[in-house]
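Input sequence (506 aa), recorded before submission:
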Amino acid sequence: MIQTNYNPDVLSCLANLSNDEVFTPPNLVNDILDLLPAELWSNPNAKFLDPVSKSGVFLREMAKRLMKGLETQIPDKQERINHIFSQQLYGIAITDLTALLSRRSVYCSKTANGKYSICDTFDDEQGNIRYKRMKHTWQNGKCTYCGASQEVYDREDALETYAYNFIHTNKPEKIFNMKFDVIVGNPPYQLSDGGHGRSAKPLYHKFIQQAKKLNPKYLTMIVPDRWFAGGKGLNEFRDEMLNDKRFRKIVDYTSASDAFPGADVPGGVCYFLWDNSYNGETEIEVRNGNQIDISKRYLNEFDTFIRYSTAADIIKKVRIHSKSFMSEQVSSRKPFGLATNERPKTKGDLKLKYYGGYGSYPSNLITVGNDLISLWKVITSKTSYDHAGQPDKEGKRRVFSTLEILKPNEICTETYIIVGSFDSEKECLNLLSYLKTKFTRFLVSQLSFSQDITKDRFAFVPIEDFSESWTDEKLYKKYDLTEDEIAFIESMIRPMELSQNVGEDE
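Predicted structure, token format:
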């Protein structure tokens, strides 16, 4: 039997583990660091900060580059090591455990001044990788800094509070009392907000905002794509990002597993280079499986971030030809005021559509949406067909799962939203044909970065004349799409069969 020596990078192994904290693989770290100007690695005065150190991989890989870049300026190896670790590289660990892990990865010792530390100038255990246990500041059951739930995170001293040092202060500059040239990292993505089920509040944007307060020359982080469309506390942040012309480049992974093997981050992830001295268009590189799309444009050409330049061109054509869009007519959550867990009653004059089928329901219990009861209605599940709003292995999406028609006197729970309501069945059937076109589902997908289908996802979908039926061919012609634009849509969207209720793909 042939034996093969296999000595994997321990940080690569960590990155492949299923964990609440997403560890960054070394190869991805180096892709991110490649965005920075090469001259930084030969500058002995440049200072680097990872404010969210987990495994220490960012600091370690930066140390490797500095060791090579400063070789001629500081030829003595030990002197060079001491200079880099004591004067250039700084980290803020997110937990006590990651502080130990980071120091072990960077200094080769869990204590900076330990016997086996490769840097022999530190006189304390932490070195330049700091960890300070912080407390949340509670107000009305939420932390004023991060929005964490007091019920979930108001813990005894023996348990981790996840009150991250970098964002639980109004003066982050006081942590190290110095000016940083570069800030890099992979921040925690969310914390439980105490809502129903597994409800969580986004967190990563706070690290970006806090980092900008330090006024570095360069900032680069890898974060979820969900800020592209805003929502759940991200609308203001999205606007800030889109209108900031200091972004030189964004690299976007439509599927997070292409960046983090085994990770499941709804909507994908992206990393960026923010350059404080830059003011111009952003280079956008979209990675969809083996396909790479590169364009250069301003981020704020729309109210949301559009990944592909071809998609942006299509949306512009649609807007030229249309004045009204379906987000104006799609219902919000709970079109009839009934929660997902609502079930049919023993008897009633209405028929309730719920997750599991149909059943009787009395009209006197309906206090919302009474004007819709007597109409024909088209509904869709509020949950997308695509897992976490991501494309399949071929890079294609279907978008909608359930699409059905509700007759007069038929209602539904919040498992569904109403896409349109009419006096006649014919109009419903025509809307159904419209929703099943690749054209329509493509436009919805441009705003879908999670598993939820909400009314705002229809903001690019024009309202058509539903007295007639619609096909892709008619829509492509109406909006003057080129062969390349048509081919792009066809390459992004899976087909759907045209029977009334959606089944399997063709």
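Checked by second reader. The radius of gyration is 26 Å.
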